[in-house]
C-alpha cells in the first residue's frame, strides 16, 4: 500500500454559530472556499468534539488531544508550552511562568500591565535580564521573549514546584503580589521565595536599565517589571514519532502551539511574515508546509487568524481568514502535489458573537484522494457537517490519519 | 456573556418503541405537544444513551449520570437514596434498607407483602416504631415512611456493612428470612445480627400496636412486620455546586429521585398535589419550578407519570402524561420567561408494550434561545431524533448545559 503524506490544517477557533449579519450563516458557511469545497468530491466530513461534548477546550488541551495525547493525563498548565514556544529548552522539573513586561511605580503599584504592549526594546531587555540575573538562591533563571510584551520565565534547579501563586495582580492600580506557596511542601515554599527574590532583582535591573531611560525620554512607559503568572512544571511528553510512527513538523507563529508541538518532538517552523494574526503571510506558511512535506510524514499547519478575529468579534475578518486558509491549502496542494490526505478542522469553536471559546463541536473534513466513500456534500460548514459521516473526538484524529494514509498498524492479529 | 438559566426536564421512562395501537407511532410521536415542537425552531435534538448503548438504566443510575457522576464509580445501591427521599438525614457509613409494611401470620409466614398497600396508619406506625425501638445492640435505628406501604430503615453505628441479605422473602406464603452476612467480615456478621434482632422487635411492637387492632377490627390486614431488602451503605457524594458551579434545585415527588438530588446537595421541592403518578398536579410542579428558577442556576423537573403508565402498559396514559409534560414546560416558560435553555429527555426508555426499562437510547432536546444552528426538524420523537445532531451519553449532559448556558469554564488556555 502506498503510504500517503498527511497535511493537518487547524484553523484556531474555526467553529462558530449562526451570525445575524451573515444572514444566519456561520463564517465558514459564508466564506468563499473553492479549494476546500473541491476536496469534497473525495472527503468525509462531520463533527469533532475536541475534548468531549460541551467541554470548552483551550488551544493547548485541544491540540494535545488532536495529536493523540489525552490532556486529562498529560496537561500540566500553559506556562511550559509558552516557554517552549518562545524558544526555551526545558528539562523535566523546570518551572515556567508566563510573564508580562509591565510598568510599575516606585511603590510597585502596576500602572500598565503591558508597558504599552509594543515594546521595541523587549529582546534587549531580556538579554540584559539574562546577563544580570543568571541565578537566584542557587536556582538557574532564564528569560525568553515571546511576542510584544510577553516574556517566559524559567527556573531550573532541584526541588522546585509549580504550586506557587502569581506575582501578577491582574489589575492596574494594585501593588504586585508576593508569590505564596499553594501547598505545604518545602519545594513550594522555596520556589515562592525564589520568585519573590527574583521579582526584586528584576525591578532593580529594569528600573536602572538605559533602555528604559530611553523609553521614558521618548514618552513611553518604562518596562520596569516582569509580572509572573501561571507557574507550570515541565514534564517530558511522549514524542509523536514514538507513539504514532509519524515524523511530524509544524508551521505556526503562535507560541503556545509551537510549544505543544516542540513538546511532542516536532520540528517547528515560523516563516518570516507569519504573525499569528490576521496580517500573517499565508503564502509563506503554505510554502513552508509544502517544503516540510518532502521530509516529513505529517505536516501540521496552524492558522491563528480565525481565533484572533473571533475574540475581537470581527466577523468579516474571520470570513476573510477562512478564505485565506482555503487559498493556503490550495497553495500547499499545488506546490506539493495531490498524493496526500488532508484533514482540516478547528481546535475549538470561538463563536464570533460570543468572543470566547465554546464547547460546541467543530466541523472536520478528511480528504483522501482515492477510493473512499465520499459523503458527497456540496459545502463544508458547521451545518452540512451534521450530515457527514464523521462524529469523533480529538483523540481519534491520529488514528484516522494513520488509517487513511495507509500507515496504521493492526491492533491484534 | 449573558449566563442563562437552565431548565432540565426528565420524563421518567419517556423513551419508547413503535406501538401498534398508535399506528406504529411511539407515544412521544403520537402525543400533541405544541410547546415542545415550538422550541424546535432553535433546538438541537438527538439521542442519548443514559449509561451506554444497550445498557438498561435504573432511574437512580441514570440520574446520577445525567447529573455528571459516573454511576460505575458512585452508585452504591438504591436504599440510601430512598431513605434520603423519605426524609432521612444520612451520614457516611449508615446502612439503609428499603422496607415494606407487610402482614405475617404467627409463624412469620408472609400473607400480604404490602399489608393492603394503602395504609392510613403508616405515619403513626412509623412513629411508634421510632419511639419503641431507638436502638438495637448499640446501633441506632430510624424508620421513615415513604409512600403507601413503603418504609426506609436506617442503621447508624460503627462497623456496619451492607453485605447482608434481605429478610424479605419476596414471595407470599414464605416465612420471613434470616438476614445473613454475604461476606466474611465481622461488620457484615454484626449487621445481620442487628437486622434479625430488629425484625423480632418490629414484630413485637407492631403485632401489639393499637393501630393494628383497629385495622383488624375494620377487616384490614394488620401491618405487623417490616420486610427489609436492598441494604446499601451511604457515602457522601460530590455536590453539584462543587463540581459544576451550578446552584441546582429539583421538583420531584418520587422518593428515589428526591434522594439522588438530595445526595448531590440540591434543594428538593414536592409541591402539594404532586404525587409521582398519573394524577399528579402538573401545574403545581410547573409553578414550583418557575419559582425555583429565580434563585437557582439549574432547576430539574422530574415527571414520573410517563414511567408509571409504561410499567402498567397504559398507552393512552403515557400519551396523556407526555401531553401534560408539554403543558408543564409551557407553563414554566410562560411564568419564568424565555431567557433560559431547556433540556428535555428521559432517564431511560420504558417501552409501554414491554412494561419494563430498556436500554434503547432516549430522545433528547436542547433548546437554546439564540444563535445556535437549529436542527430544523418539525417534530420531537424517537424517530426524528435520529436525524438530529446530538449523540451523547448521560455523562455529557452537564457539560452541554454549562456550554450552552454560557457557564462553562475553559479547560486549558
TrEMBL record, chains A, B:
Pfam families: Metalloenzyme, PhosphMutase. Pathway: Carbohydrate degradation; glycolysis; pyruvate from D-glyceraldehyde 3-phosphate: step 3/5. It comes from the Archaea. Gene3D superfamilies: Alkaline Phosphatase, subunit A. Its EC number is 5.4.2.12. GO terms for molecular function: metal ion binding; phosphoglycerate mutase activity. Belongs to the BPG-independent phosphoglycerate mutase family. A-PGAM subfamily. This is 2,3-bisphosphoglycerate-independent phosphoglycerate mutase. It comes from Metallosphaera hakonensis JCM 8857 = DSM 7519. The gene is apgM.
